[in-house]
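Please review this one:
***
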Amino acid sequence: MNHTARKPWSMVRVVTASSAGTAFEWYDFFIFGSLAAVISKVFFASLEPTAAMIAALGLFAAGFAFRPLGAIIFGVMGDRVGRKATFLTTVSLMGGATFAIGLLPTYEQAGMLAPALLILLRICQGTALGGEYGGAAIYVAEHAEQHRRGWATGWIQSSAGIGLIAALGVILLTRTLLGEEAFAAWGWRIPFLSSIILLGISVWMRVKLSESPAFTKLKQEGNVTTAPLREAFADRANLKLVLIAFFGFMAAQGAVWYSTFFYIQVFLEKTLGMAGATVNLVIMAMTIVSAPLYVLFGWLSDRVGRKPVMVGGMLLALVAYIPGYHAIAEAVNPALAAAQRATPVVVETNRASCSVQFDPAGTRRFTTACDVAKGQLATAGIGYTERASADGATRIRVGDDMLDVRSGAGFDGPGLKALKKDTGDQLKGLLAANGYPASADLTAVDWVRLIGWMLVFVVGACALYGPQAAALVEMFPTRIRYTAMSLPYHVGTGWVGGFLPVTSFALVAITGNIFAGLWYPIFFTGLSLVCALIWMEETSGKALD
């Protein structure tokens, strides 16, 4: 009787402590992505604006690149030492790295040392997050009742949204109180430094938890694995499950979720000219809406199955990408859309002189006239088409008007920078004269259309992500669960999702088509949809032992 009376509180405590810790880790990780535009100026001041933005997004991706390494390190620890000790370690590593970012010198203060230290701390963050998610999801799932597992782990999924809400909220509050100038100068540090408070709360909550019952039983029976990597990836049956998890839904999760909550920020601010603070508000509103939907779709997957709910989310996102982003562009900046229809921008040039506008390392100078023209258009967020010029010269045509673009070959650093600035200033005047707005007019935004389409993507992302933790936990045996499920999860979200913003933005810069970045999420979502329909099996209600 006592046991029955204590059980509801015990489960509430398990879910609360696990979700809160995971939300904190996501808060730490998402601050960086949400501040990409500011980070590009603070730590990559020596680069051109387009290259700096790509470098900042590349650094955002770098954190994700190391998540599979964290999945292996902490997966092995979780399967050999235990769930509780492992996610106490991951939350401490993440919190320490995030706090340290707030103390870093800027590029102006320390030169290349500043981005080098930032890279190191991003690697620490990515490695920590690689071990966090699996531990929290498994811990909750191994406590949950068999037929409520989707609902219980849905709270872990919602913690990503809660972490993003917290990150955007702190950023927005700091921006509002300090103003944009002070925020750009030093206020950006506050969201990083304030994480130390959340770290203390998370560690305190998790210290009070006991080990999961499934792992405790495994330990008592003497069945704890001594070689989780070999069992998970050398065993053919287990490896097949790992591959199905990645190709069947994790690749799509990275594509759908990160296009919905991260690439859309770059699209709204960089391409459509919406103010950064307004973008934060829009994304925060969408994230607030998403938080309960993860639990709802987790609960629904307990009733109708994981597969139909997750496949439905993939399908919705896949058919919505192209019409949705076009509609969002029309809704946010109708003047820009009208100008691009009436007076499209054309770059006439010697195509052999054009380079690929993608340099995350920041070592290339892009000196040809073609590179200067395309670089300035990418910085302005303006789409264009390209054609060969009869005389080999480079010019930007906007309707009947024309801007001759000079080559920067032979210029020193300051000279090249001055040339590009002069070209950019002339381009702004040319665009303004042809009806191109400098930024989005908030009074002209079709908010109903914007929010409507944003909600379509949010529903797709939540339907896919909500049941995902339960599906992953149910796929693998207890002995190797931490290791086996963590790797496909973090390859999907870490590599497919983490590299989505930088790759999509680079595709836009390379092609001149503001919608070209969509082909990245379309490919991975379509791939997973096909694989899920063929190979994914239903696991709802499956016994974990």
Notes: The chain has two domains: 2-333+443-535, 348-429. The CA atoms of residues 260 and 389 lie 39 Å apart. Residues 1-9 have pLDDT under 50 and may be disordered.
